[in-house]
Design goal:
three-stranded antiparallel sheet; 10 strands; seven-stranded mixed sheet; Aminopeptidase
């Protein structure tokens, strides 16, 4: 597959929601402000990569960073694809850095409850920081396990929901400058054992259904990713 076959560009909230609800195992959009990167391969829209603040209101605290200097990779939602997920994430990360130059660190999590060890992060040379602190997740309507912040966003309150469960995840970090890399390096731990190849990990992460092209309204490329963005970064490698 040539590099020209893969295209990444800013996408609308509607397009991102379409991809997440169809191709991500959670089927839910994360709460809060998002940077939305759409993915096209050979023409059709095949998914998105989303960055945000995540569910942790103190995401930068362990690293001595204000909330404005750290972000979380919150969703990678793809249909069937030929390009590696690592390549897709790498291009999306390049776009994010160009649009939001004040960022110094990205974090992301791999959910062992879904059989994920973070192979796409390992292939992308992210630093493994070990297990995250257990987070309280609420059993919402229909028995779905979601974060309390998501429950509050949906229903306006967490009252009346079922008791919480305590979960943990594999935590990865990607420094965006040399000083932050030097600061994080002592925290690096050996990667957890991989369940298989990068491909097997991504197949578990994504729904792997047939490709789909949303309606024209969902294929808008023109949304600005965040207030800091002024010029659109390159849309492909």
């Amino acid at each position: 597959m040539s590099k020209a076959d893969l295209k990444l560009d800013w996408c609308s909230y509607a397009a991102a929601k379409y991809a997440v609800e169809k191709w991500h195992y959670s089927r839910t959009m994360p709460a809060g402000k998002l940077v939305k990167v759409g993915v096209w391969e050979g023409g059709p829209f095949i998914g998105c990569v989303l960055f945000g603040r995540g569910a942790n209101n103190h995401i930068g605290q362990p690293f001595g960073l204000p909330q404005t200097e750290v972000a979380e990779l919150v969703r990678v939602a793809l249909s069937r694809h030929r390009a590696s997920v690592t390549r897709v994430v790498r291009v999306a990360l390049r776009m994010l850095r160009a649009a939001c130059p004040g960022l110094r660190l990205l974090v992301s999590y791999a959910d062992p409850e879904q059989g994920h060890n973070g192979a796409i992060y390992q292939a992308g040379n992210w630093m493994y920081l070990g297990s995250s602190r257990p987070q309280r997740e609420t059993l919402g309507q229909g028995g779905e396990i979601v974060h309390k912040r998501t429950v509050h966003s949906r229903y306006g309150t967490i009252k009346g929901q079922r008791p919480s469960a305590v979960l943990w995840k594999h935590k990865y970090a990607y420094p965006l400058d040399a000083a932050m890399r030097a600061q994080i390096e002592p925290l690096r731990k050996p990667y957890p054992k991989r369940a298989g190849s990068v491909g097997s990990d991504t197949a578990a992460t994504h729904a792997a259904e047939g490709g789909a092209t949303p309606t024209p309204a969902l294929c808008s490329h023109g949304d600005q990713p965040c207030e800091a963005a002024t010029d659109s970064p390159p849309s492909s490698e």
